[in-house]
Specification:
13 helices
Length: 272
């Protein structure tokens, strides 16, 4: 396949890492996949931190973005232009939340091909080693075989937990519902994947859950923009600031000839 050919270098790297973890470190094949997952997630920590900061910034500026959407709700093109301008001014990357997933998809597919050729390319280094996980599932067999459905249940629980931390930062209810429903929708598809691939995804879900708990405690949230009230002075505009100070008076400016004042009768003599 074309996709498999493109990812062949990445597949070779993962094969060498798995063999090194098994032969040098001494880990069983199943736990080598767990260790490989941990290594991948450690390499993606900078991307994950950027994702968290971006989602927090989106949450902090949500009222302003909602106001822009309401103002230009009848002009979708202008709405998108104003939102992109707002993103640039506030240094927000709306696509940063997708970066960890984008980086993990090629790794996931490469691991699939690695496990597909497991017996010929990997297990040949140690053919007598066990390829079972906790003596329950064979990492090279489909999830539907034996105790594989138990691993599938663990996947669904871990995926829902990790999705909860991701959806809590989202503003759209539709996105929250979608990200919570997808793990259940993918269950029939997972039945035809190797159990080793499921171990990889369960491990990465557990990492995401732990990462969400840690970042909520350690990473400070960005300060929200100041709220405007009735006492907040209006923003100065260039037209207002360019006027001279002599023309800005508290009352209306009177034009025309000066007003004449009538004098009282009596010449100002004091009364007795």
């Amino acid at each position: 396949m074309i996709l498999g050919g493109i990812l062949t270098p990445l597949e070779n790297v993962m094969t060498h890492v798995l063999v090194w973890l098994h032969l040098t470190i001494g880990l069983p094949w199943a736990w080598s996949i767990v260790a490989l997952t941990v290594i991948v997630r450690i390499l993606l920590v900078p991307v994950a931190v950027r994702q968290i900061h971006s989602m927090q910034s989106l949450q902090a500026h949500a009222p302003e973005m909602k106001a822009i959407q309401q103002r230009w709700k009848h002009d979708r093109q202008r709405q998108q232009e104003e939102l992109m301008k707002f993103y640039r001014e506030n240094k927000i990357n709306p696509y940063a939340s997708c970066l960890p997933m984008v980086f993990q998809i090629p790794i996931f597919i490469a691991l699939y091909y690695t496990l597909r050729h497991f017996r010929t390319n990997i297990q040949v280094h140690d053919p007598g080693a066990s390829i079972n996980w906790l003596h329950l599932v064979d990492i090279n067999q489909h999830v539907a075989v034996g105790w594989g459905p138990l691993l599938l249940v663990i996947y669904v629980v871990s995926q829902l937990t990790s999705s909860y931390f991701m959806s809590s930062q989202m503003q759209s209810n539709a996105q929250r519902v979608m990200i919570m429903v997808l793990p259940v929708v993918f269950v029939p598809i997972w039945l035809h994947f190797p159990a080793g691939l499921m171990i990889y995804w369960v491990t990465t879900n557990l990492w995401t859950t732990g990462q969400g708990l840690v970042t909520r405690r350690l990473l400070p949230r960005p300060a929200p923009p100041p709220k405007r009230t009735s006492r907040t002075p209006p923003r100065e505009t260039p037209a207002a600031t360019s006027q001279p100070a002599a023309q800005t008076t508290s009352g209306p400016v009177r034009t025309g000839p000066p007003r004449r004042v009538k004098k009282k009768r009596g010449g100002g003599r004091p009364r007795r």
